[in-house]
Amino acid sequence: MVWRDIRLQQEMNLSQLAARTQESRGRIYPEEPCRVRSEYERDANRILYCEDFRRLRHKTQVFFNAKNDHICTRMEHVLYVNSISTTIGRTLSLNQDLITAIALGHDVGHAPFGHSGERALEKCLRDRKLDLSFKHEYHSLRVVDRLSKRISSQAKCGLNLTYEVRDGIVSHCGENYYEYILYADKNKNMDEIYTQDHRNCMPYTLEACLVRLVDKIAYVGRDIEDAIRARIMDYNDISPEIRNVLGSTNAEIINNLVVDVIENSYGTEYIRLSDERGEALKEMILENNEHIYQSKIIKRYEKNAYNVIEGLFEYIYDAVNSIRNGVIDLNNKIHRRLVGFMDEKQYDDTEKPEQIAVDYIAGMTDAYALSVYEEIYWI
Question: Which of 57, 92, 181, 327 has the fewest CB atoms within 10 Å of its CB?
Fold first, then answer.
């Protein structure tokens, strides 16, 4: 018996709007199918076991260098997105394997120090007026397509994921506060995956639409929990109008939004919230921006992150150029590690040194970035 056939048969019981393995647009490099797993479950496993995913447990969500062990990390956020998305997806009869793969991979390319690190890397590139940029969703796609590597593979093709997962990763960005109605764009050109403005167009599948919306649901209340632990704010700082609609705790907020998504999406071609809760979610995110993300303590952390990232970029950029010119300081541990990194990633001469520096820094955890910075600049 081919066990995979049982899995494919189970997919036939999904909603007519769900993604199915047999309808996949496929991988960059064709592969023989697994005897047991669906293509999307295979992708989820590849992401789960890659080193880039493992490092998320030491990367910032909002509060970095936190001494409180209960402050949310990037990996925790990813797991929350997966949990909430699969709960909703199961009720809507969507493809849970695809949901899991997208949810696990959506932040795999995030920089150290959260969005502060992301903005710092973007500034490093912008200051040099290059035709390069750094946005975490595009770098997540670069990680799974190019930088990450399966242990058993010698190929220069990353994890070689299916198009549906890759599109879900690069299209996940939930930073648009005003968006709470999403639909699948089945006319997306798969050859334009690196050039499309995914923040202003819809994902290819409903499963990806779900992850994109849940990304906001997962962080909005959790960030408030962390802000309370950091004594930046209290639940009473949330406007009464918002609390009346969404609730007063993270658990209430998640429950109310999950039920609302299910009630308003079931049997439709959309993933959506009601207007009332969609507007309330938008307002809560805007209040979080005022109370948390723009707070003095976060701004102070952000300055430190900028200093570290910019210092690392300057040094590593110069080191990459030196190595390419054959000037390698074998007594320099950073030089030696960078040579190993460049060899492992199999960069050719067409890769800009700025891109190599970004790849190296973006893969660092918060603690490792600080450690390397200290190696370079501390006497």
Answer: 327
- Give the Å distances, CA to CA, from 374 to 112, 309, 331, 371: 15, 12, 17, 5
User: Can you list the positions of beta strands (E) in the chain?
Assistant: 181-183, 270-272
In whole angstroms, give the CA distance from residue 169 to residue 62.
20
Give mean pLDDT, residues 243-258.
Answer: 96
- pLDDT value for 154: 56
Pairing between β-strand 270-272 and β-strand 181-183 as defined by DSSP bridges: antiparallel
Predicted local distance difference test score (pLDDT) of residue 8: 78
What is the DSSP secondary structure assignment for residue 60, as one 8-state letter? B
- Residue 325 pLDDT greater than 70, yes or no: yes
Domains of the chain: 3-59+70-108+148-279 (1.10.3210.10)
What single-letter amino acid sits at 262? I
Say if CB 63 and CB 301 are below 8 A apart: yes
* DSSP 8-class letter at 111: P
First to last CA, the chain: 65
Least confident of 25-29, 108-112, 238-242, 331-335: 331-335
Other residues' Cβ atoms within 10 Å of the Cβ of residue 245: 20
Determine the Cα–Cα distance for residues 239 and 235; give it in Å rounded to an integer.
Answer: 9
Task: Kindly report the pTM of this predicted structure.
Answer: 0.95
pLDDT tens track for 140-180 = 999 999 999 876 655 566 999 999 999 999 999 856 667 99
Residues 6+ apart with CB under 8 A from 317: 353, 354, 357
Which tokens in the block code for residue 377? 């600049």
Q: Are 132 and 105 in contact (CB under 8 A)?
A: no
Comparing CA positions, the residue from 234, 155, 140 lying closest to residue 194 is 140
Of 54-63, 109-118, 262-271, 325-334, minimum mean pLDDT range? 325-334
CA angle 279, 280, 285 (to 5 degrees): 100
